[in-house]
From TrEMBL:
One Gene Ontology cellular component annotation held by this UniProt entry: bacterial microcompartment
The family this protein is said to belong to: Belongs to the PduL family.
Coiled-coil segments: none
One GO MF term attached to the UniProt entry: acyltransferase activity, transferring groups other than amino-acyl groups
Region forming the signal peptide: none
Gene name tied to this protein: pduL
Name of the protein: Phosphate propanoyltransferase
């Protein structure tokens, strides 16, 4: 199934919306600055700076699949840096094909490459493709459905790897101290918008040394709360003692 992608129809993959403008509304629960007076990544004026971003449909590829789809010797070409350092939207896009030849053209590839290929969709995307994509955290692809990826130089059949990405928050260890959470904990995200305010539960903490404080929700979730017009956002620790 060789088919050239129409580059004129490239749709934007990642829409980042800076929310809060300054320090997080959540009260500090730990240290407010790192040792030595050096601000942690993303902090402003000694406090975390919360960003909420819509992560639209996108694809992660292995080096092998990059060459299959775009030609021998091809590598991902960065087009736009993402908020998290070292990650980018590539110039390359692919067509995602589901059952009965339903397809989504021009789905952006994100870099750098990974050890496995993965397709991340919103619910409406998966319905459009005719794929029953489960909600999973990134990398948890065992038992998930597959699809066909079409590039200008070839095709790739994925036997698994199509997911609806579960909402999550990237943060560094100073952010985690501030909120009183640790890697793997769950948080709540409150978004206040006119007539459609929402509280998102089950926001997974993904903490590492270099991350900046950023919540990722998908396109459907962003539309549900009218994120672009939100007047207030708040990230808070989930104290319900629920088991996840």
């Amino acid at each position: 199934m060789n088919q050239t992608i129409d580059r004129n129809q490239i749709e934007q993959l990642v829409r980042n919306a800076l929310r809060g403008g300054g320090p997080s509304a959540t009260p500090a629960t730990g240290k407010s600055a790192s040792a030595g007076g050096i601000s942690p990544p993303g902090w402003i004026d000694g406090q975390p700076n919360l960003r909420v971003s819509i992560s639209a449909r996108h694809v992660h590829l292995t080096d092998e699949h990059v060459e299959t789809l775009f030609g021998a010797g091809s590598v991902l070409e960065p087009d736009k840096d993402l908020y998290q350092d070292g990650f980018y939207a590539a110039k390359q896009t692919v067509m995602v094909v589901g059952p009965r030849r339903r397809m989504l053209p021009n789905v952006r590839v994100l870099g750098p490459t990974r050890n496995f290929s993965q397709v991340e969709l919103a619910l409406t995307d998966s319905i459009s493709l005719g794929i029953d994509a489960p909600i999973r955290h990134s990398g948890k692809i065992e038992g998930t459905p597959g699809c066909v990826l079409v590039g200008p130089a070839g095709t790739v059949q994925l036997d698994q790897g199509v997911i609806r990405a579960a909402r999550h928050v990237h943060m560094n260890f100073s952010d985690a101290d501030h909120f009183g959470v640790k890697n793997g904990d769950m948080m709540q995200l409150k978004i206040k918008s006119h007539d459609c305010s929402v509280v998102f539960e089950d926001v997974l903490v993904r903490a590492d040394e270099a991350a900046k404080l950023e919540v990722h929700i998908d396109t459907d979730e962003g539309n549900a709360c009218n994120l672009d017009a939100a007047c207030e956002v708040e990230l808070r620790k989930d104290d319900c003692n629920c088991k996840h």
